[in-house]
């Protein structure tokens, strides 16, 4: 049972070029898709060649309740007013005790969208922010 417990992540700690953005409670979009072109070879009716062509990486969406770390995101985004510079990001999945389960390193990271909380006195809810990142792929990490 202990092995299964290790795979349950309760937070995702994010760093952009070694600057911490804090922890998030939701991480969606860590995926890669390979486009495949089919090629039928003349005289060979027994198979169709599957040739990989393009690699597409999904945007990563991170969400969390608004905290004091929210200012770190806005500082990073406002720093891009002088020009967009791609960064490297590391996302670590951690347990309740803070142990790292696994991590993903992303290259060529830029923010795509940040959305702040919807504030209303009529329906009090937890104030949530979402950060969406585009990237150029995964870096291999050796531990």
Automatic annotation (TrEMBL):
From the Swiss-Prot or TrEMBL record, give the protein name: Phage tail protein
What InterPro entries does the record point to? CHP02241, Phage_T4_Gp19
Q: Name one Pfam family in it.
A: Phage_T4_gp19
Please give one Gene Ontology molecular function term for this protein.
structural molecule activity
Which species is this UniProt entry from?
Answer: Actinosynnema mirum (strain ATCC 29888 / DSM 43827 / JCM 3225 / NBRC 14064 / NCIMB 13271 / NRRL B-12336 / IMRU 3971 / 101)
């Amino acid at each position: 049972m202990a092995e299964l417990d290790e795979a349950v992540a309760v937070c995702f700690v994010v760093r952009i070029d070694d600057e911490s953005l804090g922890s998030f409670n939701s991480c969606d979009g860590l995926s890669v898709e390979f486009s495949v072109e089919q090629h039928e070879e003349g005289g060979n009716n027994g198979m169709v060649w599957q040739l990989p062509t393009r690699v597409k990486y999904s945007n990563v969406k991170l969400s969390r309740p608004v905290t004091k770390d929210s200012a770190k995101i806005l500082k990073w985004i406002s720093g891009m007013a002088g020009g967009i510079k791609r960064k490297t990001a590391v996302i670590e999945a951690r347990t309740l005790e803070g142990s790292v389960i696994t991590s993903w390193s992303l290259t060529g990271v830029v923010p795509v969208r940040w959305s702040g909380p919807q504030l209303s006195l009529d329906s009090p809810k937890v104030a949530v922010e979402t950060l969406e990142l585009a990237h150029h792929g995964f870096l291999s990490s050796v531990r």
